[in-house]
Amino acid sequence: AQKITQTQPGMFVQEKEAVTLDCTYDTSDPSYGLFWYKQPSSGEMIFLIYQGSYDQQNATEGRYSLNFQKARKSANLVISASQLGDSAMYFCAMREYGGGSNYKLTFGKGTLLTVNP
Amino acid sequence: NAGVTQTPKFRVLKTGQSMTLLCAQDMNHEYMYWYRQDPGMGLRLIHYSVGEGTTAKGEVPDGYNVSRLKKQNFLLGLESAAPSQTSVYFCASRRLAGGTDTQYFGPGTRLTVL
What we know:
Chain A is mostly beta strands. Chain A has strands spanning 4-5, 10-14, 19-21, 24-25, 32-39, 46-52, 60-61, 64-69, 74-79, 88-96, 105-107, 111-116. Chain A contains no helices and twelve strands.
């Protein structure tokens, strides 16, 4: 079974609008972390945001926020006021902290976001 | 503060040749990782290290070896390159402190094996 599922291979959004990128995860470990990375066409992997499973509040970093719904095992990324430079591939990832596997960051297959002018 | 750097950025090898990819980080992180990224496969973990002098296998370790002789460097070796090893290779280091967990990636090395 996939640990991280990103169901949207591609998304389109108009500049200045908000967009939500979906991510669901599967784990039985009560302690885990959720991450989002951005990969522009230049290829580098840019860390955006982190949410711990015990964090009470949703994480925010500038225009990025993580909509964490623990019961639904959902960790959607919300980008507010989209900019042309937001066009990129976005990856959701998870690290499980229990059971001796806390070295491993498991990635989803990504969502390609295109921001239209 | 350069973060995570990788050398080289691009390389073309012939089948059977060997090479070493160098990763360096200046953030004093204990954990370091090597991933490969292939179209439609996402990132997959090759090997990792939890500190100087330690290495361990990830999801796809076959055909690769690693060494972590110094804390700041993590080397990935291909002893006998195969076309299936054509990929983009990313190194990463991890900061775990203050209740947060961040993994920083290098710029990547694009390797083609003919």
